[in-house]
Design goal:
- It is a single chain.
- This protein is an alpha+beta fold and about 140 residues long.
- It has one domain: Quinohemoprotein amine dehydrogenase alpha subunit, domain 2 (Lipocalin), CATH 2.40.128.120.
- About 20% of the residues lie in helices and about 55% in strands.
- The chain has 1 helix and 9 strands.
- The chain has a 9-stranded antiparallel β-sheet with strand order 4-3-2-1-9-8-7-6-5, with no helix packed on it.
- The longest helix has 25 residues, at about 1-25.
- It is globular and about 35 Å long.
- Mean pLDDT is about 85; it is low at about 20-25.
Length: about 140
C-alpha cells in the first residue's frame, strides 16, 4: 500500500513539474524593443532630413541600416558601426560615415512614443536633434 501512495505522489510531482516547464517553454522571450522599422528626422540648419532606419538582431548582435527619403529604389541601406544599446537606460548609440560630412555619431534614448537624441557631426563639432518613430506597416 505504501508503494502505491509513493507512486501516486511521484506521478503528481512529475505532472506538476511537466506543466510548469511547458508553461515556461510557451512563454515567449521578450524581444528587443528596438527591432523593426523606424522613420527618422534630423533637424539641421539646412532643413529637415528624413529617412528609414531598420534595426535587426543577428548572431553577432544588432545591425542597423539607414536610408534617406528620396533615395533611389533598390539602393542598399547605409550600414552603421559601433552599435551599443544599454537596456537599463534604454540608450542606443551608433556611428556611420557620410560621404559629404564625414563621421556621424548618434545617441538616442528609447521611450514609449519613439526615440529622441542627437547626431554629432564630428567634422564640425555640431550636435543636431534627431527623432525616430515606429514606421507604420
Amino acid at each position: 500500500m505504501r508503494f502505491i501512495q509513493v507512486s501516486i505522489v511521484l506521478l503528481i510531482v512529475l505532472f506538476a513539474s511537466s506543466c510548469a516547464s511547458s508553461r515556461e517553454m510557451a512563454t515567449p522571450e521578450p524581444t528587443n524593443p528596438l527591432l523593426g522599422s523606424w522613420e527618422y528626422a534630423i533637424d539641421t540648419p539646412d532643413g529637415i532630413f528624413k529617412g528609414g532606419m531598420y534595426i535587426n538582431e543577428g548572431e553577432s548582435g544588432l545591425s542597423i541600416g539607414l536610408t534617406q527619403e528620396g533615395q533611389p529604389e533598390g539602393t542598399d541601406p547605409l550600414m552603421v558601426d559601433e552599435i551599443t544599446f544599454d537596456e537599463e537606460s534604454q540608450a542606443l548609440s551608433f556611428s556611420f560615415v557620410d560621404d559629404d560630412y564625414g563621421k556621424m555619431v548618434v545617441n538616442m534614448v528609447l521611450a514609449e512614443e519613439g526615440m529622441t537624441g542627437t547626431m554629432r557631426v564630428t567634422q564640425f563639432g555640431v550636435d543636431v536633434p534627431i527623432t525616430a518613430m515606429r514606421a507604420e506597416e
